[in-house]
Write a structure and sequence with these properties.
The complex is a heterodimer of chains A (158) and B (430). Chain A has 158 residues and is α+β, with helices and mostly antiparallel strands. Chain A contains six helices and four strands; from the N terminus they run ααβββααααβ. A four-stranded mixed sheet of chain A has the order 3-2-1-4, with helices on one face. In chain B, the strands form five sheets. Chain B has a seven-stranded mixed sheet with strand order 4-10-9-8-7-5-6, with helices on both faces. Chain B has a four-stranded antiparallel sheet with strand order 13-14-17-16, with helices on one face. A two-stranded antiparallel ribbon of chain B has the order 1-2. In chain B, α2 runs parallel beside α9 and α10 runs parallel beside α13. The chains are: A alpha+beta (158), B alpha/beta (430). Bound molecules: pyridoxal-5'-phosphate (PLP).
Chain lengths: 158, 430
Amino acid sequence: MNTGMDELYREVILDHHRSPRGREPLPGPADARAEGKNPSCGDELVLELACAGGAITGAHVECHGCAIATASSSILAELVAGRTPEQVRVLAEAFRTAMHSADGVLADDLDPGDLEVLTGVRKFPARVKCALLPWITLLSALDAEGEGKPAAPATTEA
Amino acid sequence: MTSRGDFLRAPAGVEPCDGQAGDCSRCGRIFSERFPLLERQVNGRPLVYLDSAATTQKPGAVIAAEARYYREHNANVHRGMHTLGVEATDLYEACRSRVGRFLGVPGERVVVTRGATSALNLVAGGLGSSLKPGDEIIVTEMEHHANLVPWIELARREGLVLRHLPVTADGELDLERLPQLLTPRTRVVALTHVSNVLGTINPVAEIAAAAHRRGALVVVDAAQSVGHLPFTFAELGADFLVFSAHKAYGPMGLGFLVGGAEALERLQPVEFGGEMIETVTMDSATWAAVPYRFEAGTPNVGAAAAFPAALDTIDEATLQRLRQHEISLTGYALERLERLGGLTIFGPRDAAQRGGLVSFHDPMVHPHDMAQLLDSQGIAVRAGHHCAQPLHRRLGVVATSRASFGMYNSHDDIDALVDGIGYARSVFGA
Ligand SMILES: Cc1ncc(COP(=O)(O)O)c(C=O)c1O
């Protein structure tokens, strides 16, 4: 590949794109749910979370988006299970910061998994939104869960 | 019901493309050496520009004319008594007449706007006060948001009923549905001349005739056709036509509303201020004549000074030749993309029934990824919903990739595109 394409389409990302995690429906009804949209390109995502004992036990994502959005949603599904909503918020915020920073470093104690690879997308400004879409949808689902009302659709536009 | 108009076919005696008589298997570029930007490299490769439906590149003569305006003539229009003011006004008005001549209408029926979008907002907003709750507007399912959202907003504000003319599986307007949709309450039929996604050329004259029998006004979005298809305003039979200069080899920030004399008189101004008035007291104002009453404030004079150079370039090539060229490129693109296999290709199969663009969907490679990977090869295409979300919903995809052509493209560019798609697929292991 050339001109940075191998940096954007890293093998890890292509793998998540080929076999995305979190595609199986949740075993029971969702405890939190949100929809996300990127109006500038039409990408859409539905995220459902199952929670038990103060932690997220599983995520189900349906993502109609590009490889970057799909991989990001797959990594998200992999990472949120077993964390508390608070930990997940911290992780989402750290990822957002990393995507807008020069070095893109995520602290090891966040246990960021493949998210570390995804921060390479920050070098392609037009694609940052694609990587963030699942994460803003996640925040929207958590907000709604906290307030016990349906989530407002998340959008990548301010 | 058929009458796409003979103007879609090459008139007798017009040589296809670059003059390779008979079957034109590969055509050369037209005037490509006049477009300075095309010399640049992108990502280390020679640029292959296949996004002319979003905006065409500009001939050097256009760029030079805009620069010359600011270097030599810059002044405000219609107000200066001084020499520069007179020159600027002359250039601005010369653009109006040139556009009129290009479309076969007198200059007084050409309103200068910021672009097609602002012209459509002017038509929708300007007709608003003459419409009553319950009046009906017909739009088609293949509209660009620019010819949809202003009508949605007007309908919401004035209590109008919006009706939709659907698109068939072949990507054409479902004309059989038109008679049911046209009612005695239909006031406006708004449709695109050429779809910016499907490429479909709509039978505007036929639809306009049907709409006029019901007393409705017809608004045509010609953003994708002016400068690409040979036609005059009268041939379309519409009441209003809009387009943007920047899709017809001209500068950005400039567009036009062309109208019938009566239709323009019916339109109320939607922007108010300087330049559009006749007399103003502290409490009242009377409007200037058409078209000036629709041109409040300082217009884009630099762009207007430059646009005639674009129309001159088109006329020098002749629209007939440009049209043949686009048909040839589109036909070749359809054939090569079809042969690649696995792609969904949208719109009519016959290149002579379409504008110079092809939208496609590869189930293996999302349009964003496709556009990104093509860009890495120096190939510029557009990916997304192309400001036509309802149509994409109808097509059952959220996004498509679109390659679109201008006079400067050649069969080689389409070969590059096909190779680029192969490369994109290889990245995804497809
Ligand atoms: C069919 C059609 N209508 C309207 C527009 C809007 O043109 P502009 O953005 O120049 O106002 C476009 C441009 O994308 C178009 O393709």
